[in-house]
Amino acid sequence: MLARIALAVLSLLVVLACGxxxxxxxxxPVPTPTTGTPTQAGGATATPAGATATPGGVTGTGACxxxxxxxxSAILGAEMNxxxxxxxxxxxxxxxxxxxxxxxxxxxxxxxAGASLANPQDxxxxxxxAVVGSLMGVIVYVGRGNIQLVVQSVFTxxxxxxxxxxxxxxxxxxxxxx
Length: 178
Known about the structure:
Largest sheet: 7 strands, antiparallel
Number of strands: 7
Distance between the termini: 36 Å
Number of helices: 4
Helix content: 25-40%
Order of helices and strands: HHEEEHEEEEH
Number of domains: 1
Strand order of the largest sheet: 1-2-3-7-6-5-4
Strand content: 25-35%
Radius of gyration: 15 Å
Oligomer: single chain
């Protein structure tokens, strides 16, 4: 029950963070991952229905294939479970409920994304322009053309440690974003 409530809160936050506006009819291109092994809770290898494995064990299913549950758990120091998945978005929550992580693709302008954040800081993530700031948690936008990879923590304080964790997650995901 707590997981469903947390997922509902995360979904609401995502809608609010995006200004509540509907998404365009076209979706951003789904990336092709290159390395890693997606896992389920407990570390079991996961291959979603309809997905095909690629060299290195990553499945071609979009946002969730850019980082594994085990990698998230190691970076955050908390056991994570995947809660939601689509081609353009993936969410995880700690087994204790928080932190929550949302990784998604959006179309848009990196400058506009940065303008919506509190305490924005221009950075580079794996050679790509990016901005980190806070919006109901720490959020990183990584730009590549008009597509942005977004990594957002949910209900976390904006501290240097949390920023570094979210940037490490973004670096891992961007390294597989093709």
